[in-house]
Amino acid sequence: MKIVSIAAAFTLATVAGFSAENPVRQPRLEDRMLAYALLEAEGTPQMMEQTLKTSLEAQLKAAPELLAYRQAFEMYLRNTISFEAQKEELARIYLEVYAPDEIRELIRFYQTPIGRKKAAAGSRIATAAAQVTQKKMQEYLPVFQQQLEQMQKEELRRKAELLQSRLPEPAPAPQQPAVPGKDAGKPNEEK
Prior knowledge:
- By secondary structure, this protein is mostly helical.
- Helix content is 73%, strand content 0%.
- It has helices at 2-17, 29-42, 44-62, 70-80, 83-97, 100-110, 113-166.
- The radius of gyration is 34 Å and the shape is elongated.
């Protein structure tokens, strides 16, 4: 579920970045083809396919009840996070960042031995980086939870003090009126 949650958060963050203020313009076919070539040279289709498979397996492992719906779930992922589902948008993003001449240079780079090595190692590096991040988060989680608990206790204490300060002062206890003739003439004694 974490991977889908992360993918959903990433998707929402990405969608939020493309508002009505940024109208989508359709790049020329020639430029789109160039961007597709760069995506291929970078190994993006293979990386996205691996991400899709990893996500699918992780979700099914975390929620075995989804096994009965594996085919539908896989179709959902293919329609949302596969290369084919995203290639138009990815090409448009690349064309917003890079000029066609820069894309040609990047393609030449990815055709060199070091470029191919970088492309091949991309998903492995991304996976390792994600594992390091998750490990660090797990290590720090108990400390963070403790801090949150302390902050919640402090917040409750502050709220209680604030409420207490807003309460009116208690009225003095009413005094019993003296009944004429009763205890008249007797000195006040402790009763």
